[in-house]
Structure formats: C-alpha cells, structure tokens
Design a protein that fits this description.
With 177 residues, the chain is an alpha/beta fold. The chain has one domain (3-39, 52-174). Helix content is 23%, strand content 40%. It contains four helices and seven strands. α2 links the parallel β3 and β4. The chain is globular, with a radius of gyration of 18 Å. It starts with a helix and ends with a helix.
Length: 177
C-alpha cells in the first residue's frame, strides 16, 4: 500500500468520531493527518449535573520515506516537552491521550522498532485528581504492512493495521474497520 491510500484509509476510519485535518501544523511541526476527539460525560438527576468528566484523544500521523533513529528521538523529545499544548488539567479533566504515528514507506530498522516499543511517557496531575495523560507511539511499515507500538499504544493498534477490504456484503457489515 502506498502513502496516499493509507492516509485515505485512516481518514475514513477516523472521520466518524474525530475531527480530521490534512496537512496540519502545530508549533512548527507539520503532520500529514491530524485527528482530535473530545468527549464530555455527565451524570444528572432531575436535570442537574452531579458530576462530569472530559476525555480527549489527539492523533498525529507523519509520513517518511526513511527515518533514522536520531530524528525519531527528536520527535519524541519534542512531544514530551510540548504536551501542555493539548493537555489542560482543569477540574473535570479525566484523561488525554496523545498518539504519534510514524509511517514509513521503506522498512524499519530493528533499533527503531526497539525504541518505539520502549517509549513510555505519561503524567498524573494533582495525584490523579485532575486526571492524567499518556503518550501512545506507533510505527507503521507500509512495505511489510506491519505495525509496532509502545505498551499504551496497543489499545489502539487495531485502528492503524492495514487490512484488505472485505469482498462479500456480510463481511463488510461485520468488519466495519
């Protein structure tokens, strides 16, 4: 699969629940695809809110032909320093997930895969009373059609796996991703 088809596939998967943008720029970094989702959940009784919490999910996809390890380490350090652009730990904040997806057209080296699988970054605010945030890091190899992720990225790894389109009508209904 090539880069343009994969980005179109991701855009179609995310547009139901996310606001999706192409060629998005944040703090001097440009992304081929950017998606964000904000959810607010409230419990009410007789129309009055008892409590509420907010969950936020940001997904940033960047495509490369070949990527050396120092560039991805710079990319990782940039997001760990700039996470407060997305995370706002106020009273009703429950969680924020920042997802970085690096898409490679040519293959991934073993040291790059080891780095991505070992990435762990997150933070609790006011001992968890103001919520937390986690960094999800994924590496997609289009030439081999493989996806690697860190521990917290395993929860959403299925969203980025390259699957062939189902041929029959029933398979299309039962496999919506």
């Amino acid at each position: 699969m090539d880069k343009t088809n994969y980005l179109m596939l991701l855009e179609n998967r995310h547009k139901r629940y996310f606001d999706v943008y192409r060629n998005y720029e944040i703090k001097g970094k440009s992304f081929d695809l950017y998606a964000e989702c904000h959810v607010r959940t409230e419990r009410t009784i007789l129309g009055f809110a008892l409590d509420a919490y907010e969950a936020h999910d940001y997904r940033m996809i960047k495509c490369y032909d070949g990527l050396p390890l120092p560039e991805i380490v710079d990319f990782y350090s940039w997001i760990t320093l700039e996470y407060d652009n997305w995370v706002n730990p106020k009273e009703n904040h429950m969680c924020t997930f920042l997802t970085l997806v690096v898409v490679l057209s040519k293959g991934a080296s073993r040291e790059l895969i080891r780095f991505v699988e070992g990435v762990k970054h997150g933070r609790h605010f006011k001992f968890g009373l103001r919520g937390w945030y986690e960094l999800r890091f994924l590496l997609v190899d289009l030439s081999n059609e493989r996806v690697w992720s860190n521990v917290s990225g395993r929860q959403i790894k299925e969203d980025f796996i390259i699957k062939p389109e189902p041929k029959s009508f029933l398979k299309k209904i039962f496999t919506w991703r």
